[in-house]
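Researcher: Can you fold this with protoporphyrin IX containing FE in place?
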Amino acid sequence: MPPTPSSPAFVLTRPKDAPLDPPPLYTQLREEQPVTRVSLYDGRLSPWLVTRWEDARTVLGHPAFSTAPSHPKAPNIREGQTEPLRGFFQNFDAPVHTTLRRTLTREFMIKRVNALRPGVARMTDELLTAMRKQSGPVDLVEHFSLPLPSLVICELLGVPYEDHAFFQRESAILVNITTSPEAFQRAFASLGEYLLGLVRAKRDTPGDDVATRLAAQVDEGVITDEDAAGLGAFLLFAGHETTANMIALSTITLLQNPDQIPYLLAGPEQAAAAVEELLRYLSIVHVGLRRTALEDVTIGDVTIRAGDGVIISTNVANRDPGVFNDPDDIDLARANARQHLAFGYGIHQCLGQPLARAELQIALPELFRRLPDLKIAVPFEEIAFKQETGVYGVSELPVTW
Ligand code: HEM
Protein backbone atom coordinates (compact mmCIF):
# COMPACT_ATOMS: atom_id res chain seq x y z
CA MET A 1 0.00 0.00 0.00
CA PRO A 2 1.54 3.38 -0.93
CA PRO A 3 1.71 6.07 1.77
CA THR A 4 -1.49 8.09 1.94
CA PRO A 5 -1.70 11.77 2.84
CA SER A 6 -2.97 10.57 6.21
CA SER A 7 0.18 8.53 6.95
CA PRO A 8 2.08 10.68 9.43
CA ALA A 9 5.83 10.93 8.97
CA PHE A 10 7.85 8.87 11.42
CA VAL A 11 9.97 11.50 13.17
CA LEU A 12 12.06 11.25 16.29
CA THR A 13 12.17 14.88 17.35
CA ARG A 14 10.56 15.55 20.71
CA PRO A 15 9.08 18.80 21.94
CA LYS A 16 11.56 21.01 23.83
CA ASP A 17 9.40 21.09 26.94
CA ALA A 18 9.09 17.28 27.24
CA PRO A 19 12.40 15.80 26.02
CA LEU A 20 12.07 12.72 28.24
CA ASP A 21 8.68 11.71 26.80
CA PRO A 22 7.97 10.09 23.42
CA PRO A 23 6.68 12.52 20.76
CA PRO A 24 3.00 13.25 21.63
CA LEU A 25 1.76 12.15 18.20
CA TYR A 26 2.73 8.54 18.93
CA THR A 27 1.04 8.60 22.32
CA GLN A 28 -2.10 9.74 20.54
CA LEU A 29 -1.72 7.04 17.87
CA ARG A 30 -1.36 4.39 20.59
CA GLU A 31 -4.81 5.39 21.90
CA GLU A 32 -6.51 5.91 18.53
CA GLN A 33 -4.73 3.81 15.88
CA PRO A 34 -2.37 1.43 17.65
CA VAL A 35 -1.32 -0.28 14.40
CA THR A 36 -1.09 2.35 11.69
CA ARG A 37 0.90 3.33 8.60
CA VAL A 38 3.68 5.91 8.87
CA SER A 39 5.90 7.28 6.13
CA LEU A 40 9.67 7.08 6.23
CA TYR A 41 12.51 9.30 5.08
CA ASP A 42 11.81 9.39 1.34
CA GLY A 43 8.05 8.77 1.46
CA ARG A 44 8.53 5.55 -0.52
CA LEU A 45 8.22 3.23 2.43
CA SER A 46 5.15 3.18 4.62
CA PRO A 47 5.65 0.59 7.33
CA TRP A 48 3.21 -0.13 10.13
CA LEU A 49 3.87 1.54 13.46
CA VAL A 50 2.98 -0.62 16.49
CA THR A 51 2.61 1.33 19.73
CA ARG A 52 0.68 -0.82 22.25
CA TRP A 53 2.60 -3.02 24.71
CA GLU A 54 0.55 -6.16 23.99
CA ASP A 55 0.87 -5.76 20.21
CA ALA A 56 4.58 -4.99 20.49
CA ARG A 57 5.13 -8.28 22.34
CA THR A 58 3.03 -10.17 19.81
CA VAL A 59 5.12 -8.89 16.88
CA LEU A 60 8.48 -9.26 18.63
CA GLY A 61 7.66 -12.80 19.75
CA HIS A 62 6.23 -13.91 16.37
CA PRO A 63 8.37 -16.12 14.12
CA ALA A 64 6.92 -14.56 10.95
CA PHE A 65 8.90 -11.32 11.32
CA SER A 66 12.41 -10.89 9.95
CA THR A 67 15.06 -8.44 11.18
CA ALA A 68 17.06 -8.54 7.91
CA PRO A 69 17.67 -4.94 6.72
CA SER A 70 18.35 -6.32 3.24
CA HIS A 71 14.67 -7.11 2.69
CA PRO A 72 13.48 -4.75 -0.09
CA LYS A 73 10.72 -3.39 2.13
CA ALA A 74 12.62 -3.38 5.43
CA PRO A 75 11.73 -0.17 7.30
CA ASN A 76 15.34 1.00 7.60
CA ILE A 77 15.77 4.39 9.18
CA ARG A 78 18.23 5.55 6.56
CA GLU A 79 19.00 4.77 2.97
CA GLY A 80 21.73 2.39 1.93
CA GLN A 81 21.57 0.23 5.05
CA THR A 82 20.77 -2.90 3.12
CA GLU A 83 23.87 -5.10 3.36
CA PRO A 84 23.61 -7.20 6.51
CA LEU A 85 26.87 -6.76 8.37
CA ARG A 86 28.32 -10.16 9.19
CA GLY A 87 28.66 -10.49 12.97
CA PHE A 88 25.82 -8.02 13.63
CA PHE A 89 23.55 -10.97 14.24
CA GLN A 90 20.65 -8.74 15.19
CA ASN A 91 20.29 -8.30 11.42
CA PHE A 92 20.00 -12.02 10.67
CA ASP A 93 17.21 -14.53 11.06
CA ALA A 94 17.63 -18.18 12.03
CA PRO A 95 19.75 -20.19 11.40
CA VAL A 96 22.62 -17.62 11.02
CA HIS A 97 21.29 -15.64 14.00
CA THR A 98 21.16 -18.76 16.17
CA THR A 99 24.73 -19.80 15.33
CA LEU A 100 26.26 -16.38 15.87
CA ARG A 101 24.29 -15.52 19.04
CA ARG A 102 25.25 -18.88 20.54
CA THR A 103 28.97 -18.01 20.28
CA LEU A 104 28.41 -15.30 22.90
CA THR A 105 25.56 -16.47 25.14
CA ARG A 106 27.90 -17.84 27.83
CA GLU A 107 29.63 -14.46 28.10
CA PHE A 108 26.46 -12.83 29.40
CA MET A 109 25.19 -15.52 31.76
CA ILE A 110 24.30 -14.08 35.16
CA LYS A 111 27.13 -15.93 36.90
CA ARG A 112 29.76 -14.60 34.51
CA VAL A 113 28.36 -11.05 34.67
CA ASN A 114 28.32 -11.21 38.48
CA ALA A 115 32.03 -12.00 38.35
CA LEU A 116 32.50 -8.73 36.42
CA ARG A 117 30.75 -6.65 39.11
CA PRO A 118 33.82 -5.98 41.30
CA GLY A 119 35.67 -4.71 38.21
CA VAL A 120 32.73 -2.44 37.30
CA ALA A 121 32.67 -1.12 40.90
CA ARG A 122 36.43 -0.44 40.75
CA MET A 123 36.15 1.44 37.44
CA THR A 124 33.18 3.44 38.77
CA ASP A 125 35.19 4.36 41.84
CA GLU A 126 38.24 5.41 39.81
CA LEU A 127 36.23 7.56 37.42
CA LEU A 128 34.31 9.30 40.22
CA THR A 129 37.48 9.86 42.23
CA ALA A 130 39.14 11.48 39.21
CA MET A 131 36.03 13.54 38.48
CA ARG A 132 35.80 14.83 42.05
CA LYS A 133 39.36 16.15 41.83
CA GLN A 134 38.24 18.61 39.17
CA SER A 135 36.44 21.81 39.96
CA GLY A 136 33.14 21.81 38.08
CA PRO A 137 31.43 22.21 35.74
CA VAL A 138 32.52 18.88 34.34
CA ASP A 139 30.99 17.02 31.41
CA LEU A 140 29.45 13.87 32.91
CA VAL A 141 29.36 12.19 29.48
CA GLU A 142 33.07 12.65 28.86
CA HIS A 143 34.19 11.83 32.40
CA PHE A 144 31.76 9.19 33.57
CA SER A 145 28.80 7.95 31.55
CA LEU A 146 30.75 7.13 28.37
CA PRO A 147 34.12 5.96 29.74
CA LEU A 148 32.49 3.49 32.15
CA PRO A 149 30.79 1.22 29.56
CA SER A 150 33.77 1.80 27.31
CA LEU A 151 36.21 0.52 29.95
CA VAL A 152 33.92 -2.40 30.73
CA ILE A 153 33.51 -3.51 27.11
CA CYS A 154 37.23 -3.08 26.37
CA GLU A 155 38.09 -5.26 29.39
CA LEU A 156 35.44 -7.84 28.48
CA LEU A 157 36.75 -8.14 24.93
CA GLY A 158 40.42 -7.93 25.82
CA VAL A 159 40.96 -4.64 23.95
CA PRO A 160 43.71 -2.39 25.31
CA TYR A 161 42.03 0.66 26.84
CA GLU A 162 44.53 2.95 25.05
CA ASP A 163 42.38 2.36 21.95
CA HIS A 164 39.11 3.49 23.59
CA ALA A 165 38.99 6.90 21.85
CA PHE A 166 39.04 5.12 18.50
CA PHE A 167 36.17 2.85 19.59
CA GLN A 168 34.06 5.68 20.90
CA ARG A 169 34.52 7.63 17.68
CA GLU A 170 33.69 4.71 15.39
CA SER A 171 30.71 3.51 17.43
CA ALA A 172 29.28 7.06 17.57
CA ILE A 173 29.42 7.08 13.75
CA LEU A 174 27.60 3.75 13.54
CA VAL A 175 24.82 4.79 15.90
CA ASN A 176 24.15 8.21 14.32
CA ILE A 177 21.29 7.94 11.84
CA THR A 178 22.53 10.95 9.89
CA THR A 179 25.75 9.06 9.05
CA SER A 180 26.07 8.50 5.29
CA PRO A 181 26.06 4.88 4.06
CA GLU A 182 29.71 5.29 3.02
CA ALA A 183 30.79 6.59 6.43
CA PHE A 184 28.79 3.82 8.12
CA GLN A 185 30.55 1.12 6.08
CA ARG A 186 33.93 2.80 6.69
CA ALA A 187 33.45 2.88 10.46
CA PHE A 188 32.31 -0.71 10.50
CA ALA A 189 35.24 -1.79 8.32
CA SER A 190 37.80 -0.03 10.51
CA LEU A 191 36.39 -1.60 13.68
CA GLY A 192 36.29 -4.98 11.94
CA GLU A 193 39.88 -4.66 10.76
CA TYR A 194 41.11 -3.78 14.23
CA LEU A 195 39.23 -6.69 15.78
CA LEU A 196 40.48 -9.13 13.17
CA GLY A 197 44.02 -8.23 14.23
CA LEU A 198 43.04 -8.58 17.88
CA VAL A 199 41.43 -12.03 17.47
CA ARG A 200 44.45 -13.30 15.54
CA ALA A 201 46.89 -11.87 18.11
CA LYS A 202 45.01 -13.70 20.92
CA ARG A 203 46.22 -17.04 19.51
CA ASP A 204 49.78 -16.12 20.51
CA THR A 205 48.91 -14.17 23.64
CA PRO A 206 45.64 -15.55 24.99
CA GLY A 207 43.84 -13.85 27.85
CA ASP A 208 40.71 -14.40 29.95
CA ASP A 209 38.55 -12.44 27.52
CA VAL A 210 35.91 -12.72 24.79
CA ALA A 211 38.35 -12.19 21.90
CA THR A 212 40.42 -15.18 23.09
CA ARG A 213 37.32 -17.35 23.41
CA LEU A 214 36.11 -16.26 19.95
CA ALA A 215 39.55 -17.16 18.54
CA ALA A 216 39.11 -20.63 20.09
CA GLN A 217 35.72 -21.00 18.36
CA VAL A 218 37.40 -20.10 15.06
CA ASP A 219 39.94 -22.87 15.66
CA GLU A 220 37.09 -25.31 16.38
CA GLY A 221 35.54 -24.39 13.01
CA VAL A 222 32.35 -22.90 14.52
CA ILE A 223 32.92 -19.45 12.97
CA THR A 224 35.46 -17.74 10.70
CA ASP A 225 38.03 -15.12 11.70
CA GLU A 226 35.84 -12.51 9.98
CA ASP A 227 32.79 -13.61 11.98
CA ALA A 228 34.79 -13.31 15.20
CA ALA A 229 35.90 -9.78 14.26
CA GLY A 230 32.33 -8.80 13.30
CA LEU A 231 30.97 -10.20 16.58
CA GLY A 232 33.52 -8.18 18.55
CA ALA A 233 32.66 -5.02 16.58
CA PHE A 234 28.97 -5.65 17.23
CA LEU A 235 29.52 -5.94 20.99
CA LEU A 236 31.48 -2.70 21.03
CA PHE A 237 28.76 -0.98 19.08
CA ALA A 238 25.89 -2.44 21.10
CA GLY A 239 27.47 -1.92 24.50
CA HIS A 240 28.82 1.64 24.26
CA GLU A 241 26.24 4.25 23.46
CA THR A 242 23.31 2.36 24.96
CA THR A 243 24.59 2.11 28.52
CA ALA A 244 26.31 5.52 28.30
CA ASN A 245 23.08 7.24 27.33
CA MET A 246 21.12 5.36 29.98
CA ILE A 247 23.51 6.63 32.68
CA ALA A 248 23.34 10.24 31.47
CA LEU A 249 19.56 10.30 30.91
CA SER A 250 18.92 8.54 34.23
CA THR A 251 21.00 11.23 35.95
CA ILE A 252 18.89 13.95 34.34
CA THR A 253 15.65 12.13 35.22
CA LEU A 254 16.68 11.70 38.86
CA LEU A 255 17.78 15.31 39.20
CA GLN A 256 14.40 16.34 37.77
CA ASN A 257 12.69 14.06 40.33
CA PRO A 258 14.89 14.40 43.42
CA ASP A 259 12.24 12.85 45.71
CA GLN A 260 13.09 9.51 44.02
CA ILE A 261 16.82 9.54 44.83
CA PRO A 262 16.53 8.11 48.40
CA TYR A 263 14.85 5.00 46.98
CA LEU A 264 17.76 4.44 44.58
CA LEU A 265 20.15 4.65 47.52
CA ALA A 266 18.14 2.44 49.89
CA GLY A 267 19.96 -0.82 49.02
CA PRO A 268 20.83 -3.20 46.17
CA GLU A 269 17.26 -4.50 45.77
CA GLN A 270 15.87 -0.99 45.50
CA ALA A 271 18.65 0.03 43.11
CA ALA A 272 17.79 -2.96 40.89
CA ALA A 273 14.09 -2.00 40.89
CA ALA A 274 14.99 1.64 40.21
CA VAL A 275 17.05 0.65 37.17
CA GLU A 276 14.09 -1.28 35.70
CA GLU A 277 11.84 1.77 36.06
CA LEU A 278 14.47 4.03 34.48
CA LEU A 279 14.82 1.57 31.59
CA ARG A 280 11.03 1.61 31.12
CA TYR A 281 10.63 5.35 31.46
CA LEU A 282 13.52 6.30 29.18
CA SER A 283 13.36 3.42 26.63
CA ILE A 284 16.34 4.84 24.81
CA VAL A 285 16.07 2.80 21.58
CA HIS A 286 13.56 5.42 20.38
CA VAL A 287 14.06 4.68 16.71
CA GLY A 288 11.95 1.57 17.31
CA LEU A 289 12.67 -2.08 16.61
CA ARG A 290 12.33 -2.91 12.93
CA ARG A 291 10.91 -5.99 11.24
CA THR A 292 9.51 -7.18 7.90
CA ALA A 293 6.58 -9.62 7.78
CA LEU A 294 7.37 -12.90 6.01
CA GLU A 295 3.72 -13.98 6.04
CA ASP A 296 0.35 -12.37 6.75
CA VAL A 297 -0.21 -11.69 10.46
CA THR A 298 -3.29 -10.09 12.02
CA ILE A 299 -2.72 -7.75 14.96
CA GLY A 300 -5.99 -6.45 16.43
CA ASP A 301 -8.08 -5.18 13.48
CA VAL A 302 -5.17 -4.92 11.08
CA THR A 303 -3.72 -7.56 8.79
CA ILE A 304 -0.04 -6.99 8.21
CA ARG A 305 0.71 -8.52 4.81
CA ALA A 306 3.78 -10.56 3.90
CA GLY A 307 6.42 -8.05 2.76
CA ASP A 308 5.13 -5.17 4.93
CA GLY A 309 7.61 -3.37 7.15
CA VAL A 310 6.84 -2.85 10.85
CA ILE A 311 8.32 -0.45 13.40
CA ILE A 312 7.72 -1.45 16.99
CA SER A 313 7.89 1.67 19.15
CA THR A 314 8.98 0.24 22.45
CA ASN A 315 9.31 3.67 24.00
CA VAL A 316 5.60 4.34 23.37
CA ALA A 317 4.60 0.78 24.37
CA ASN A 318 6.49 1.20 27.64
CA ARG A 319 4.16 4.09 28.50
CA ASP A 320 1.01 2.03 27.80
CA PRO A 321 -1.54 2.82 30.55
CA GLY A 322 -3.11 -0.60 29.97
CA VAL A 323 -0.01 -2.12 31.58
CA PHE A 324 1.64 0.60 33.67
CA ASN A 325 -0.38 2.86 36.01
CA ASP A 326 0.31 6.56 35.48
CA PRO A 327 2.90 5.56 32.87
CA ASP A 328 4.27 9.06 32.33
CA ASP A 329 5.31 9.33 35.98
CA ILE A 330 8.62 7.99 37.15
CA ASP A 331 8.11 5.77 40.18
CA LEU A 332 11.25 3.86 41.11
CA ALA A 333 9.24 1.54 43.38
CA ARG A 334 6.83 0.54 40.57
CA ALA A 335 6.00 -3.13 41.10
CA ASN A 336 5.77 -4.19 37.45
CA ALA A 337 8.47 -2.01 35.86
CA ARG A 338 10.35 -5.16 34.83
CA GLN A 339 7.64 -5.90 32.28
CA HIS A 340 9.17 -3.17 30.10
CA LEU A 341 10.32 -3.85 26.57
CA ALA A 342 13.41 -1.62 26.72
CA PHE A 343 15.61 -4.62 25.93
CA GLY A 344 13.20 -5.90 23.28
CA TYR A 345 11.42 -9.24 23.47
CA GLY A 346 11.66 -12.62 21.74
CA ILE A 347 14.71 -14.20 20.16
CA HIS A 348 16.50 -10.90 19.56
CA GLN A 349 16.05 -9.68 23.13
CA CYS A 350 19.19 -7.83 24.25
CA LEU A 351 21.98 -10.29 24.87
CA GLY A 352 23.96 -7.79 26.96
CA GLN A 353 21.11 -6.95 29.36
CA PRO A 354 22.66 -8.60 32.45
CA LEU A 355 25.79 -6.53 31.89
CA ALA A 356 23.85 -3.32 31.21
CA ARG A 357 21.84 -3.91 34.40
CA ALA A 358 24.99 -4.55 36.44
CA GLU A 359 26.62 -1.34 35.18
CA LEU A 360 23.54 0.78 35.89
CA GLN A 361 22.91 -0.81 39.30
CA ILE A 362 26.48 0.00 40.33
CA ALA A 363 27.06 3.34 38.58
CA LEU A 364 23.86 5.24 39.43
CA PRO A 365 23.73 4.76 43.23
CA GLU A 366 27.48 5.35 43.48
CA LEU A 367 27.23 8.59 41.50
CA PHE A 368 24.54 9.99 43.81
CA ARG A 369 26.21 8.66 46.97
CA ARG A 370 29.57 10.20 46.12
CA LEU A 371 28.14 13.48 44.81
CA PRO A 372 25.06 14.16 46.95
CA ASP A 373 24.91 17.77 45.75
CA LEU A 374 25.10 16.88 42.06
CA LYS A 375 23.43 19.48 39.82
CA ILE A 376 23.13 20.11 36.10
CA ALA A 377 25.24 23.18 35.36
CA VAL A 378 23.04 24.55 32.54
CA PRO A 379 19.32 25.37 32.44
CA PHE A 380 17.26 22.29 31.56
CA GLU A 381 16.20 23.80 28.19
CA GLU A 382 19.86 24.03 27.18
CA ILE A 383 20.69 20.36 27.59
CA ALA A 384 21.87 19.04 24.20
CA PHE A 385 19.56 16.04 23.62
CA LYS A 386 20.57 13.86 20.68
CA GLN A 387 17.34 13.73 18.73
CA GLU A 388 18.50 12.23 15.45
CA THR A 389 20.23 9.14 16.70
CA GLY A 390 18.94 5.59 16.89
CA VAL A 391 19.62 5.64 20.61
CA TYR A 392 18.28 8.65 22.50
CA GLY A 393 20.69 10.48 24.75
CA VAL A 394 22.77 13.59 25.32
CA SER A 395 26.02 14.58 23.65
CA GLU A 396 27.22 16.36 26.80
CA LEU A 397 25.96 17.00 30.31
CA PRO A 398 27.76 19.71 32.29
CA VAL A 399 27.41 19.07 36.02
CA THR A 400 28.60 20.59 39.29
CA TRP A 401 28.42 19.33 42.90
C1 HEM B 1 20.85 -0.06 28.74
C2 HEM B 1 21.54 -0.51 27.75
C3 HEM B 1 20.98 -1.30 26.59
C4 HEM B 1 19.76 -1.23 25.98
C5 HEM B 1 18.59 -0.30 26.33
C6 HEM B 1 19.75 -2.22 24.92
C7 HEM B 1 18.67 -2.47 24.09
C8 HEM B 1 18.62 -3.48 23.15
C9 HEM B 1 17.44 -3.82 22.36
C10 HEM B 1 16.12 -3.09 22.41
C11 HEM B 1 17.76 -4.89 21.58
C12 HEM B 1 16.80 -5.65 20.64
C13 HEM B 1 16.86 -5.17 19.22
C14 HEM B 1 15.80 -5.84 18.34
O1 HEM B 1 15.01 -6.67 18.78
O2 HEM B 1 15.76 -5.48 17.15
C15 HEM B 1 19.14 -5.22 21.86
C16 HEM B 1 19.83 -6.24 21.25
C17 HEM B 1 21.15 -6.53 21.52
N1 HEM B 1 21.94 -5.95 22.50
FE1 HEM B 1 21.44 -4.50 23.77
N2 HEM B 1 20.95 -2.87 24.92
C18 HEM B 1 21.73 -2.34 25.93
C19 HEM B 1 23.01 -2.72 26.28
C20 HEM B 1 23.73 -3.73 25.67
C21 HEM B 1 25.05 -4.16 26.06
C22 HEM B 1 25.84 -3.60 27.23
C23 HEM B 1 25.41 -5.16 25.18
C24 HEM B 1 26.68 -5.96 25.10
C25 HEM B 1 27.81 -5.65 25.60
C26 HEM B 1 24.29 -5.36 24.28
C27 HEM B 1 24.27 -6.29 23.27
C28 HEM B 1 23.17 -6.57 22.46
C29 HEM B 1 23.17 -7.59 21.43
C30 HEM B 1 24.34 -8.50 21.07
C31 HEM B 1 21.90 -7.56 20.83
C32 HEM B 1 21.39 -8.41 19.66
C33 HEM B 1 20.58 -9.59 20.15
C34 HEM B 1 20.03 -10.46 19.03
O3 HEM B 1 19.72 -9.98 17.94
O4 HEM B 1 19.89 -11.67 19.28
N3 HEM B 1 23.29 -4.47 24.60
N4 HEM B 1 19.63 -4.36 22.83
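Model: Folded with protoporphyrin IX containing FE in place. The chain has one domain: 24-372.
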